[in-house]
Amino acid sequence: MLREILNKLRERNMRTKEIDTEYRAEQTVQERRKTANERELERFMEEERQKQITLNLENIRKQKREQQWNGTNNILKEKNVFLNHGSILKDNPRLNSFKPMQSQRSMFMR
Questions:
Q1: One-character DSSP codes across 5-30
Q2: Between the CA of residue 100 and those of 62, 94, 96, 106, 107, what are the distances in Å?
Q3: Which long-range contacts (CB under 8 A, 24 or more apart) does 13-22 make?
Q4: CA–CA separation, 97 vs 5, rounded Å?
Q5: What is the model's pTM?
Q6: Residues 6+ apart with CB under 8 A from 68
Q7: Which residues, in sequence order, are CB contacts of 76 under 8 Å at separation 6+?
Q8: What are the angstrom distances between the C-alpha of 14 and each of 2, 3, 10, 89?
Q9: How far lies 12's CA from each of 8, 19, 79, in Å?
Q10: Residue 101 exposed, middle or buried by CB count within 10 Å (0-12, 13-18, 19+)
Q11: Cα separation, 62 vs 42, whole angstroms
């Protein structure tokens, strides 16, 4: 069973390699038939296409950023859940015994 699977994988790999070599041969023949001006024109058109793609991606990213800041999922517009829990912090004896650094006199600050 394992041998059958390995044989199928090898056959598939061989087929893909054959298809790839045929494709490359066709591409080289087509490139050799073209004139230098045609190749330059295709290169220019490809560069323009890539510029348009990058501009579209930048616009999409900008819109997503604006939606994050102005949309419903804005963290800054969320309700503060800790706002009314001051009594919980005051009632805890462990937290009451803690004194901040400002109230204590530090040996470095004399």
A1: HHHHHHHHHHHHHHHHHHHHHHHHHH
A2: 43, 13, 10, 11, 15
A3: none
A4: 69
A5: 0.45
A6: 74
A7: 69
A8: 18, 16, 6, 70
A9: 6, 11, 58
A10: exposed
A11: 30
CB 43 within 8 A of CB 50: no
Q: In the block, which residue shows the tokens 């490359």?
A: 24
pLDDT tens-place string over residues 81-90: 666 665 555 6
Q: Which amino acid is at 34?
A: K
Query: And the tokens for 100?
Result: 């901040």
Tokens for 106, please give them.
């530090």
Whether the CB-CB separation of 96 and 90 falls below 8 Å is answered with: yes
What φ, ψ does residue 31 adopt, rounded to 5°? Answer: -65, -35
- What the block records as the tokens of 74 is 């804005």
- Average pLDDT, integer, range 21-29: 95
